[in-house]
Amino acid sequence: MIVERISGKPLSKYFEDEFLKPLNMQHTYFPQQGTDRELPQPSVTSWLKADNKLTPYTLDNVTSAASEGNIVTTPKDLSTWAFNLYAAKKVLSEQTLRDMIARDDNGQEPASYGLGCDLEPAAIGYGHNGARAAYVTIMRYHPGTHRTYVVFSTFLDVKGLREQIMDMEEVVQQSINEVIKAER
């Protein structure tokens, strides 16, 4: 509501005008209608494993998560977003970006999540994880390789979600290692 009041535009239109068009993210959109449940084609069926039951997902209503999760995108567009946010610095001011990726030690253990940025595990850089029924995504920018890494799955195991995320983080780590090896 704050963005809409200040900009005079619906949130989805603001995002489109300020971020999607300038960054050439042509395959990203923000569903607004509760009836907007189908993914744009081409898309794949995703699967949710819960209570030892495997359920196919072809429809989902993400409008309940306005401004924090009602984004439908592709891995390429997500990589474009990450690169422009963290490397090209076209999204936030330098100070806001520094604040977002700063590690804050509260005296016990470092915070791993600040201003919407996941900082752990540190070896794979910083970015964001996301999950919806039957989808899991990891997006990271790794400053050492100056690259973005996106791993996504169209399968979500409710009981094994933490292990699934750890496996996906390992894929990112292996990819980083291969890039480093190739650049030697």
Task: Provide a short characterization of the protein structure.
By secondary structure, the protein is an alpha+beta fold. It has helices at residues 2-7, 11-20, 75-87, 94-101, 161-182, and strands at residues 46-50, 53-57, 113-114, 117-118, 126-132, 135-142, 147-153, 155-157.
Mean pLDDT rating:
86
Distance between the termini: 49 Å
Strands ordered across the widest β-sheet: 2-1-8
H/E element order:
HHEEHHEEEEEEH
CATH class bucket: Alpha Beta
Percent in helix: 25-40%
Extract low-pLDDT stretches.
none
> What's the shape?
globular
- Indicate the radius of gyration in whole angstroms: 17 Å
Mind telling me the CATH superfamily name? DD-peptidase/beta-lactamase superfamily
What structural class is derived from the secondary structure elements? alpha+beta
Provide the number of structural domains: 1
Largest sheet: 3 strands, mixed
- CATH topology (level 3) name: Beta-lactamase
Figure out the total of helices: 5
What is the annotated CATH architecture?
Answer: 3-Layer(aba) Sandwich
What is the tally of beta strands? Answer: 8
Content of β-strand:
15-25%
Domain Beta-lactamase-related: 1-155
Pfam families: Beta-lactamase
Protein name: Beta-lactamase-related domain-containing protein
